[in-house]
Structure formats: C-alpha cells, structure tokens
Amino acid sequence: MKISIISFSRSGYRIGEMLSWFLGEGGHEVEAFTKSKYTKKILDESQVEADDKAFRNVKEFAKPIDSSLRDWTGRRFAESDAIIFIGACGIAVRSIAPFVSSKKTDPAVVVIDEQGKFAISLLSGHIGGANELTEEISNLLHATPVITTATDINNKFAVDVFAKTNGCYISDMTMAKEISAALVNGNSVGFASDFPWVGEIPKELQLLDEEDDTKEKPEMGIYVTNSYLKHPFVHTLYLVPKIITLGVGCKKDTPAETVEKVVRKACDELLIPSVSMELVASIDLKKEEQGILEYCKERNLPFETYSAEQLKEVEGSFAESKFVEETTGVDNVCERSAILGSSKHGEKSNLILRKYAEDGVTAALARRKWSVQF
Q1: Residue at 153 is within a domain
Q2: By the 8 A CB rule, do 102 and 127 touch?
Q3: What InterPro entries does the record tag this protein with (predicted)?
C-alpha cells in the first residue's frame, strides 16, 4: 500500500516518524510530510537527541510542504492508496472534503491524534482498506482503534470487504449498501455462485437452492459470476472476479475502435462484462500492434504475447485456419493465446467462448480455475 503521512505539530511529527518506519518495515511504501511551524527546529540536527538519531536520521524523514493543505491533499488523493493525518479530525475532514468521490476509488483515510491515543478510520473503511490500516496502526502505537462501519461493529458479513478480498468488481454500489443495511437489520440475503468456495458461508447468507423450487428465496441476493445471463434474485448484486483472458488476433493496422467493437460483440455472446478480464494475449507478431495496445491501455489491461512455437504446444481442440497458419506459423492465434495466457497461474483453464471473427479481428475468451474464499 502506498501511504502518505502528514503531521502538524512537534509531537505529531515524532509519531509520524515512528509510524513511517514501522509501516515501511511492514512492506508499505511510505512517504511522510509535515506542515508545522516547528519543522525547521525539528530538522535542526543539533536539537535531535541521540536516541532519535539511532532510530532514524530525521533529516531524511518528512518533507516540509509549502503549498496549501488543499493542494497537497488533492495530489495525495490521486497518487496514494492511503493518507494518514496526525492531528485533529476537523483538519482531515476539511482537507479531504473537496476530493471525496466514490467508495470504489477514494483512498483510505486514517486520523491519529497527536498523542497517539486513538486511530480513526475516516474514509474508505472497506474497499480502500482504512479499517485494516487503522487496526494495523493501533497495534503499532498501542492506540485505541475507532471503526464505525455498521457491519464491523455488528459483526456482520460485509459484501464490499468480501468483494475486495476475492478481487471482484461490484456491479452496483447502491445495491451493495442496501444489502449491508439488510444484513445489519437481520433481513434475509441470498447467495449464489458459479464457482466453488473455500470456507463456510456466513450464517447471514441464505444459499440459493436451484433444485428446490418450493423453497422461498430472498428477493435480494449476491451472485458471484462472470456473466450477466442469469438473474437469480429479484434484486441481484453481481460480484465479478477478474479471471478471464482475452485472446485476440487482427489484421495489421486494425484501429482500436474496431478491436473494441469486435471484442464487445464477442463478450455480448455470453453477456460477459469487460471488467472480468485480467489479461489480453496474442502472438508475438502483434506485440507492436497499435490497435490492440490502445485497447489495453484504455482498460489498464496487461498485454502478453507468445511465439508461434509456444502457441503450438497448447493442448486442446481449436478452430484451424490454413491462412492464419501460413501467415503466423500456427493454425489458431486467439483461442490458443487465451488458453496459454489464462494458464499462467498454474491452474488449468478452459475456453468459454471460441473464436469470434469480424472485420479482420478474432477474439476468444478463456477462464482460469478459481474459487470463492470465505
């Protein structure tokens, strides 16, 4: 986690110094800042006690900020996974207010008082990880964690934490809130999954029994799937894992708009949302193909290519093309690429959509073996 820390007083600076070191040792990427009239005095090495020097060279610790706190916070919102304010809650609230946007994208925000007695999860408790960071900080400082999210204080299943843990896209944040409210109020919430699961389903969730039509099912429920084809509940919240590889091939100089159009049509065959993709794969002859590169860049998807020899070694039954074989050295690019890219985790994968071709573009989809974790 990329964490930014800011302090506003001498005592806050000292807490930030210690916390920065401990969090860094814990594997986080930490950058510390200070906006205090005491900064220059603190940075004067002649005033640093010997114990402090042994702990960390203070001159290398926090960067003084001369810009406004609003400008600093705006940059941190864009660049950091988490922001820690060491000072009053009011300072943090006023600083982040102009930039708060969405639970899906806002960084975690934690506030620590300048004596280190309390650590408060202020923003993005679940998806952003503020609650977990608050607990971690509290353990390091021996502080009291202050967490106010309803599912946590009531010890209820939290759908957004579950989605984050399993790497799933949440289809509707409004419905996710409604499900959380229903769980807190003790109402029935259903659960269905196209995938096996490890662990026990929480008692708050009612497993959908598709074979028993006589059993009344909840109107609201969670469905873990890669496709929007089914609608198991009247109000269905889809949780979509990123476990699909797109195998793609195209004619030289095919524009990104054409690649996007054909891929979208291919996905529509099974109502598969693009958010379920984790990788785009092709033959190495296409490693500089601008249309594919632009498609990947727009969606922040990694693009991997393989040699014809590697693709030939992929086992399975694939749609053969003499023209493709004469051009590339292998009888099929999209299906073989999808399987090979999807198998890089070491798990066996399978094609869920075979070759779809249009306008000089071919696309295939493979899904790797995956399970839900409770």
Answers
A1: no
A2: no
A3: CbiG_hydrolase, CbiG_mid, CbiG_N, CobE/GbiG_C, CobE/GbiG_C_sf, GbiG_N_sf
